[in-house]
Amino acid sequence: MPIVTAQKHETVDALSYRTLGTTDAVEQIYQLNQNLAELGPFLPHGTQVQIPEITTTTTATVKRTALWD
Q1: Which residues does residue 22 pair with via DSSP β-bridges, in sequence order?
Q2: Would you state the torsion angle of the CA atoms of residues 8, 10, 12, 14, taken in this order, to the nearest 10 degrees?
Q3: Would you say 11 and 30 are in contact if contact means Cβ atoms under 8 Å apart?
Q4: Which residues, including other chains, have CB under 8 Å from residue 61's CB and lie 6 or more apart?
Q5: In which region does residue 54 sit, left (phi positive, over 0), alpha (psi from -120 to 50) or beta (all else)?
Q6: For residue 33, what are the CA distances in angstroms to 30, 59, 62, 68?
């Protein structure tokens, strides 16, 4: 699992969005980093945070028909 360094005045959801492109992993980040919540809403600059590896899921393709087809 990758480790990321928090920037100045960064929140966990902002760190998640910066590194993963989504905030859906915030709960997983807190689970991986047990004492992270004790640091408060803004992470101290330089805090090392373990980030989960997110796998991309494929979505079903919907075939659409236009009126002129």
Answers
A1: none
A2: -140
A3: no
A4: none
A5: beta
A6: 5, 30, 39, 55
* C-alpha angle 8-11-15 in degrees, rounded to nearest 5: 85
> Residue 29 corresponds to which tokens in the numbers above?
């980040």
65 band by pLDDT with thresholds 50, 70 and 90? confident
What would the pLDDT profile of 3-60 be if each residue is shown by its tens digit?
999 999 999 999 999 999 999 999 999 999 999 999 999 999 999 999 998 775 545 5
Answer for the pair 5, 51: CB distance below 8 angstroms, yes or no: no
Alpha helices (H) along 1-69: 12-20, 26-32
Amino acid letter for position 43: L
